[in-house]
Amino acid sequence: MEALRFSTALRDEVRRRMEHIGETDLLIGIPSYNTQGTIAHVMEMAAEGLYRYYPRLHSLIFVSDGGSVDDTREVARSVDISTYQVEKIVTIYRGYPGKGSAVRAIFEAAKYLRARAVVLLDSDLRSIRPEWIPNLVEPVIEEGFDFVAPYYLRYKYDGTITNTIAYNLVRSLYGKRVRQPIGGDFAFSRPLVRAYLEEEVWETDVARFGIDVWLTINAIVKGFRIIQAQLGVKIHNVKDPAEHLGPMFRQVVGTLFTTMEHYEKTWKSINGSEEVPIRSMYPIEGRVEPFHIDVDALIEYFRLGFQNFGPVWERITTPDNFRVLKTLASRRTRRKAFLLPEDVWARIVYDFAVYYHRTPRQRVKLVDLMLPLYHARVASLVQELESVPDEEVEAYYEQQAEVFEREKAYLIQRWEQHEETREEP
User: Fold this and answer.
1) 83 and 165 share one domain
2) What number of other Cβ atoms are within 10 A of residue 144's Cβ?
3) Mean pLDDT value of segment 182-199
4) How far is it, in rounded angstroms, from Cα 233 to Cα 227?
5) Longest dimension (CA), the chain
6) For 288-318, how does the pLDDT look when each residue is reduced to its tens digit (9 = 90+)?
C-alpha cells in the first residue's frame, strides 16, 4: 500500500487566514507538543521582543502544533499579544507526526507571506528574553546572513547529545564549529527557507525527527552564510540522560548518519574546521542551573547493554575499541575508574557510522544498539568534569572535538574498506 503523501503541511483555514494577512516581515515559528506550561511565556517574550525592537515591521507568531493532548493549543490561543501589535496563528500541521512536519508548516507559511526572516523557537523555553529576537533576527535582515544558530551558556552536564556526538560530528565532518547544531532556536533568510522546502525529505525520518541537525548541516553544505547568536543561558525542561533522552538520541544520531550518506563527497574532502563568528547585539546575563545526573544508572544501563549486545558490538567495533568496552563492563571496574577515553569514544562513533552505511536494512536497530554506549560516555563525562571549574568546561569540549577531527582519517579508512561489503538497500 502506497504511503500517504502530503503536498502541504498547511490546513485550508490557515491559508485563508494568510490570504487576509497578505505579507509579513518577520515570522516567529514555534513548533509545539504538550507544552501548556511554557508556551504562553515563549509567545509573550517573542511578542515583546518584536514590539520593542521592530515596531515598524509587520510580524506574525505562528504556533505549529503536533496534536497536543494537553491544553497547549488552548493556552496559545488565549495568549493576548494584541497590545504588542503582533498577529498570531495557532494551528495543527498536516503530515506525519514529528517536529519536522511542524517546521515544514512554518516554512511554507513564511514562503507564502514572503517573510524577510524566520525564527524558530522551542516551545519549552523558560529562559527566553525579548533580546533573543534581535540577536537572532538582526544578522539576517541587516548583515545578510542566511542561517543563525544559537550559542548558549549551559550547565556543564546539559546538552549531552550535543556534547558527546552532535557538535563533534558536525564539526569534524563539515568543517564548521557550530556549537549548538541541535539547539532548536534558529533564524533563517528567505532564500534559505526556499532551499529547505525544495528538498525531498519532508516525509522521511530525517526531517520528521532529526530536523534541527538537518537544518544546520544543509545550511553548511549548501554554502549559505552562517553565524551564531549569543542567547545567554538556556533553561528548558531538563532531561536526565538515564531516563529521558533515548528518543532524541535515536532521532539525532539517525539523521547524522543518514546525512553522511547524502554528503559523502563533501565531508571526505574537508580537513580540519574553522570558527563560526558569534555575535551579541544585546548581551544577556544569567546563571546556569546545576542539576544531578544519575551516573550509577548510566553505568548499569551500559553493563546490561554489554550483556545483551556484547557480541554485536564486537562485530561493529575494532578489537582495540571492543577491549576497552569489555573492561568497562567488568564489575571490578569501580565507578571512579569508569572512564571511556575521548579517542576510543570517537572511534566507536565512527565504527557505528561505518556499520550504518554498510547495513541499510539494520539501521533503526543499529542506533538502538548504540544507546548504552552513549550512556557509558555520559557517565565517563560526568566524572571527568566533576572537578573541572565551570569556566574551563568549554575548553574541555573543544579538546574533545579536536579528537574527533584527528580520528577522521580512521573513519575514512574504515568507510572505504567496507565499500565492497556493503549490503544492497
Assistant:
1) yes
2) 9
3) 97
4) 18
5) 69
6) 888 889 999 999 999 999 999 999 999 999 9
